[in-house]
From TrEMBL:
Domain of life: Bacteria
Name this protein carries in UniProt: Outer membrane protein beta-barrel domain-containing protein
InterPro entries: OMP/PagP_B-barrel
Amino acid sequence: MLLKKPFRIIVCVLILTQLIENANHLKAQPIVTNPLSGSYFQPKFGINAATFFNHEDFLLDFGIGLEELGYDFSATFNGSFRPYYKTVFIEQSQNLYWQIEEKVVQFSLDLEKRFYFLEFMNRNKFGLYAHLKVGFFYGTYKGLSENRNQHFGITPSGGLSWQFASNARISAGYLYFNQNPYANPHTFNLKLSLYFGSEDTQ
């Protein structure tokens, strides 16, 4: 117990030091930019890892493809899945339901456009994004001889985007995942994107 107060002081000092260091690293106040402007074509190879979830469901999402930094858009191939079986109730007739264990998978082409309106001297950016998943969704069910709930779907999302390094970005927002009739479609989406390629020298 005697060490608790000194420990808190040390933690506060470390956090304050980190905040001051980050403030100095920005080198200036944020600059307001035109979110619709672009510079020139800067293609990179990108990977991303994400999750979308709510109080009823949780899915993981991984992607690979093109990250274009000049005009701030992405085109990636993604795979989403629930990493566990979930109990669902499927209506067979009036007052008759089956209780079944379900796992879901989706393969999609993901298109994203970002609209940055704040930029810092160290090339960090902050703004909004609009995202669209176009893909094929299907569910697998324990105890059934055939898979059900198979169809193509469009999944829109949008929210906040922060490019916090020259090769990394994090996004957080809302995703309307309405492909599965046995789950709430309103989900929170959190994604980390990394991109690789030769450094821009212009």
